[in-house]
Amino acid sequence: PAKKKDIRDYNDADMARLLEQWEKDDDIEEGDLPEHKRPPAPIDFSKIDPGKPESILKLTKKGKTLMMFVTVSGNPTEKETEEITSLWQGSLFNANYDVQRFIVGSNRAIFMLRDGGYAWEIKDFLINQERCADVTLEGQVYPGKGAEEGEKVKNKTKPEKSKKKKDADKKSNSIKEDNRATKQREDL
After folding, report:
1. Which stretches of sequence are listed as region Disordered (predicted)?
2. For the chain, what is the mean pLDDT?
3. What kind of fold does domain 54-141 have according to CATH?
């Protein structure tokens, strides 16, 4: 049997054990659990439109945190981007959308949503803004009103990365051919 200790003699480990015993019996409400421990919301398949794949994504992201990237058109400074996206965030707040905004570049911002089910409505609002070049949501790039004519290809997936990778491969190959030390090492 464990000895009874005086509470005044408890150290940090004893206090942690006592806290665990108290919390073990507590019932934590579902809303208080961290997002990764909450059970997923049930999906109502009757609301899914087979012609719109976005409807499936909308239902699966409901209640989950989601981030979207927004690019401001033109060549704005970071301060201009801050002001423009602040106006958009204020408009969304007035429409009862809980959106947090983080500036990640001179013309780029992240909009973080607590409930991903509203992401496509917010995306529709953003792409209709005059200074919005594009919105990236779940790997899809949606051109905005402010996009240049050459970039208004509807709903493209990110080709920029593959293009950059190909250019980098070409550069590395040309460097290998020109570099004498590399050529000698290959001969060995």
Report:
1. 21-45, 143-188
2. 77
3. Alpha-Beta Plaits (3.30.70)
Q: pTM for this one?
A: 0.59
- pLDDT at residue 64, as a whole number: 81
Please return the burial class of 103, using the count of CB atoms within 10 Å of its CB with bins 0-12, 13-18 and 19+. middle
Report the distance separating Cα 143 and Cα 126, nearest Å: 10
Distances (CA, A) of 120 to 6, 39, 77, 137, 172: 59, 23, 27, 8, 40
Q: CA-to-CA distance for 143 and 121, rounded, in angstroms?
A: 15
Contacts of 41 (CB under 8 A, 6+ apart): 62, 63
Q: What gap in Å lies between CA 103 and CA 79, rounded to an integer?
A: 10
What is the C-alpha to C-alpha distance for residues 153 and 150, in angstroms, rounded to an integer?
Answer: 7
| CA-wise closest residue to 123 among 40, 179, 66 | 66
Q: pLDDT tens, 57-103?
A: 766 677 788 899 999 998 899 999 999 999 999 999 999 998 999 99
Q: Where are the beta strands (DSSP E) in the chain?
A: 66-72, 99-103, 108-113, 132-137, 140-143, 156-157
